[in-house]
Amino acid sequence: MTDDRLLGEILQSPLDDMPPRPHKRAVVVGASFLAVLVVGGVLLLLLSGDDTEETAVATTVVVDGSVITSAPQSTVAGTETTVTTAVAVQVFPEPSVFHEIVALGDGKVLMFGGAVPLGDTTIPLEGTWVFDAAVGEWSVSNSDVSPSPRSGHAMALHPPTGKVVLFGGGAAEFRPCPRTRFCPGVEDNQVWHYDPGTNTWEDMTPPVPDEESWPVVRFGTRFVFEPIGGRLIMFGGVGVFGEGLTPTFYEDTWAYDPVTNEWENLTSADEEAPRPLGRTTYGMVWSEEAQRIMLFAGDSLAGTDDDHLWAFDPETAVWEDRGVGELGPYDRWYHLLTTDPQSGRLVLIGGSGSILTPIQGGSIREVGPLDEVWTWSEAEGWLAQNRMEGPMSPVSGVADAGTLAIIVYDGHEVMSYDVAVDQWTSIAHREEDDGG
To answer: What is the pLDDT of residues 147-171, one digit of tens each?
Structure first.
């Protein structure tokens, strides 16, 4: 449905819809002493005052690239009284795009990397963060050894080993790029394992990866665990090479075994065999109902099957085109495709894509962030759900078995979506987003 996509749409960036948020300057008034303690991942500001007048205190502190802000506090008037106030402050990651989050299976969510918007470019991040949905708090889990700053990487939990596996991504600043929405800069094809129990990262990349047995560098791909063979499946992605910054959209399929640290190229040698076109920023998830890996949409620039749903059988390594459905969603990118932990249906949330605006005598098609929510099942196909209160793109999220909801993070706010009752709940958000 996108074969008439305009050049302006191709160059559309999520950064256009997500300007960098200014940080408030740290100001402490009416406090003669300020101490900073970190207890249990929560930062405590200890304010001691002996001023003669009651004074409001609002403090912003930057720690490890995250901005944390206290609520306004007051000191007690009087020359003979000294009051020390401990203010618990929510630690929050820097607003970012192209980060990746993974459900750890214990009600907690792991996030690594991302990129901070800065004008028409972005700066990659390297922080390791854990979000606890039970208490609605982020905590920093940085270690001595970790992957370099990056965004657009693939990351997934491998349940048999309990490790989180990270692959690739863009490891340098983004910059404008012809014929695609972004240039990921310097990509790599590293594989890292993260152990949540010990909070340690380990680089599993061989000194000189062999292109026959190891995927080449790329950005914007996805990892999905398939329980039949116990491996992680990866498809596609994009690399940018040469003086003309020409993007290469891959259409290969790989399986990675974290136990042996080995890759297997599952791409069919038959060029006529069905497969999705090479693409990036797509959605991909395992469907227990279909016993297949399901892939939807993404940015391929070809415009011929971006709105098709594809199914991959890990036992036969065969892709099947499931088509578009009679009333299915249109093409999009930067969206979330996950599963409802209660019903097992696929859930499609947000992204960027075509927006039809009615005008006199017809309509015009523009590109922008979407507020749509869809579900899919073998029996019912695509079903449109109630729209979100506002559009969301890029968006990342996971199905959380602990809360029986979908945990969604858009770089500013963590939300919970209960598909059964169509209810969105804000779990945590940045205080400066309130304008405070």
So the answer is: 999 999 999 999 999 999 999 998 6
